[in-house]
Amino acid sequence: MVRRAYHGPVVGLILVAALLAGCTVLRPAETVRLRVLQLNLCNSGMALGCYTGRAVDQAAEVIRAERPEVVTLNEICSGDVDTLERAMRQVPDDVVVAAFQPARNGRTGEPYRCVDGQRYGIGVLVRLAAPDRGHAVHHGFYPAQDPADPEQRAWLCVEAGTDLLACTTHLAYTSATLALAQCTHLLGTAVPQLHADSGHRPTVVSGDLNLRQGGSPDVRSCVPAGYGHRHDGGVQQLMATAELKIDATRSVDMDRTTDHAAFLVTLTTVRQPPPAA
Fold first, then answer.
1. If phi over 0 gives left and psi between -120 and 50 gives alpha, with beta otherwise, what is residue 45?
2. Which Gene3D superfamilies match (predicted)?
3. How far apart are the C-alpha atoms of 211 and 89, rounded to whole Å?
């Protein structure tokens, strides 16, 4: 596992509680909304059955309309991240962390490439706001890979201080058993190790897992105890730790620019601040 640390503002998820002058009071509980948008854009140019060349522009429109706090991205080229970061930064004070992780070419050890030569992989966007408390990006490759498929799959997480850990992945499509092994590694080894290293924090994992609820194997086999879980009726999944309550899910039309509708999940968390003097 590789960890790259950055310095920047932290996710603006905490609302400032009012204080009564001259009194010692308990700050009220804070209910915070978090909207996570999952997108598989099929933008490598290799999968001709779903590639249109228009998915990134459509994704930018959806991001501007839905205003998510987190966007998870699958099947993108490295340059797509810059376009979608700009779409997410809608007002001058918006600060967005944009992280990209290429898949690895198992034959060369180099980053896997889109048809146009850009690096191909996955991404995470997280909307940040002051105060500046730092963030970090983590990524890794799965120990289990398909030896017949040169595209080696990876996972990617953005750690926003103590407020949030947002992760994505795009798992193997050649074997559901292999996809389940990768899912189990991410949720059973990689994410717990991040919690052990940096402290537990509310966590969401969202992506195209190439696993289905009710499938064989069933995606629920890799969902840890206590996690919430929702799916789009297909292979796009979201898991969240117990601090995050899943309130609603919705598919968002991508106007036939890719083979997956966008998957939007709304979550809330209730925080209990300490007493204020």
1. left
2. Endonuclease/exonuclease/phosphatase (3.60.10.10)
3. 32
Q: DSSP string spanning 118-180?
A: SBEEEEEEEEEBSS---EEEEEEE-S---TT-SEE-EEEEEEETTTEEEEEEE--SS-HHHHH
- 267 near 247, Cβ under 8 Å? yes
- Report the pLDDT value the prediction gives residue 277, as an integer from 0 to 100: 54
Which residues of the chain have a pLDDT value below 50?
Answer: 2-24
Q: In what order do the strands lie in the sheet with 164-170?
A: 2-6, 135-141, 154-160, 164-170, 203-208, 236-240, 228-231
Take residue 126 and report the two structure tokens written for it: 């997280």
What digits encode the pLDDT tens for the residues 179-227? Answer: 999 999 999 999 999 999 999 999 999 999 999 999 999 999 999 999 9
20-53 pLDDT per residue, tens: 234 445 556 678 899 999 999 999 999 999 999 9
Q: What is the pLDDT of residue 91?
A: 77
